[in-house]
Here is the input.
Amino acid sequence: MPVELPGTQNSAMATATATANLPRRKLSQGTRHTINGLLFASPWIFGLLVFWIYPTLASAYYSFTKYNGVRNPTFTGLANYIELFTKDEEFLAAVYNTVYFAVVSIPLAIFFAFGLAMMLNAKIRGQVVYRTIYFLPTLVPEVALALVWVFIFTPHNGLIAAPFRAFGSRGPCWLTCAEWARPTLVLLALWIIGQQIILYLAGLQDVPQDLYDAADVDGANFLSKFRNVTVPILTPVVFFHLITSVIGALNFFAIPYIMTGGTGFPANSTLFYSIYLYKNAFHYLEMGYASAMAWLLFMFTLVVTLIIFRSARLWVFYAGGED
Amino acid sequence: MVRRLRGFGRSVLIHASLIPAAFVFTLPFLWMLSTSLKPDVQFYAYPPVVIPSPFQWSNYPDAVKFITFFLYLRNTLTIAVLATIGVLISSSLVAYSLARIPWRGRNFLFILTIATLMLPFQVTMIPLFIVFKNLNWVNSWLPLIVPHWFGGALYIFLLRQFFMTIPMELSEAARIDGANELKIYYSIILPLSKPALATVAIFEFIARWRDYIGPLIYLSDQEQYTLSLGIYEYQTQYGAEWGLLMAASVLITLPIILLFFFLQKTFVQGIALTGIKG
Here is the structure.
């Protein structure tokens, strides 16, 4: 019932009416908000159910079955999981490669992204130009990126071999031998840290100048300013970088897949977890087995991110309270 | 004077590390460009040929003819544009609900939204494939477009954060004036959120343009291929056609780089925005 109040000649009555209507209006407004909220959110509620929740549960179920994607899945209990850990050497190789990649490349990425952002923040000329250059590789489509790398890293002939040839050496075998393929991929991944550089730079530009000024008054040198002002304020960015890059590293797929066609060549050294999972699902049609791998990955991601979140209170500094 | 000298020395030192880094970051791209203009004999020349002479411009028309480049381009564009439109509409509606309408359960929905960001895509990959297979959508563009019409978690998050910065009083005043939520969304919130919407549009367009695993899983008919799949065809049984391949790589990279140059500010703000709350 809409209450029309022409003017406010009788403000006492208007107030009385408004008060009298308050409980009912509030309730109806609450309901209306709920209906509107649900309506506006309905695409995503549907999307969540169909594209996220159902597949996650279905995947959990498939992981306990033998399933080729065509015939009905047959329940096999823990067989997939047992096979993964006891019989499957390719699986163990994939786990090793992926963990190696994450453990080596993430700290290096943090170091370089942070370092370059620090230097960019030093109010030097050409900051925007540098920033653009560092960011460009992240824009190159992965296919183009992977293929140009293969080309550059051709042993003995590629561009990368040129400086070695200048010294009469043939240079390393890069992507063509097992002992070099892993470090080479780590090297290549360092090339796409542009987004992180921008994040650190944004974080650095948020550091309040008066903190540095106060440190200057106390006679702090560069190193102690870095340790006591810059690093603490940037820890939330490092935290964000760490979480996203752990997830990213565990999902590392396109670049090594394009480079090797998913073969894991040489000697399974580029067989990453996601590649092996994909092959099981779509090459061997072992969809149950691949689902078990997917769930293990999910659990592992969850545990690692939880540990990082838990550890946050020990090292991540939030300025919130002191503003 | 001493101080100025020190400042000068410092900036020389900084440039001395930034320039080599810049060189390393541009090198693969320059090499792509350089190779795209080379005749075959210069690919592996030693010492390396940096600036080809003469420029073999014919690599570009040859590259476009060697594969059905324009068909793949059309496919890629169709998918990218339709997915982007869908993600913009759906994500902004959902973000509006989460940021601007006070209803019970919206916090729960928001937490769920963030949680999906942690879920590895491999978990949903197989059941989704089965669903699309049962719908007879495999080997069509639908699996690459339709899901985006139901919102994307990262974009919902991003837009929600942005919508929350718009004063609530604006909505309340409009409600008192009798505007319904759709009207407020359309004529108040959206016009004020152009930068954030632009960010979402660019991010999504580039993500679809670059997408590799999606087409890899769902497209098997060559007619449907996107550029990222089609580019494989330069690798023949006789080895790769590096000149043509690099020319095509330049062609598929260039549009994104141009987008970036024109919309640099939007990009940088967008990336910073995704990192705000960790």
In short: The first helix of chain A runs from residue 11 to 62. Chain A touches chain B through 93 residues (CB under 8 Å). Strands of chain A lie at 65-66, 74-75. Chain A has a mean pLDDT of 86.
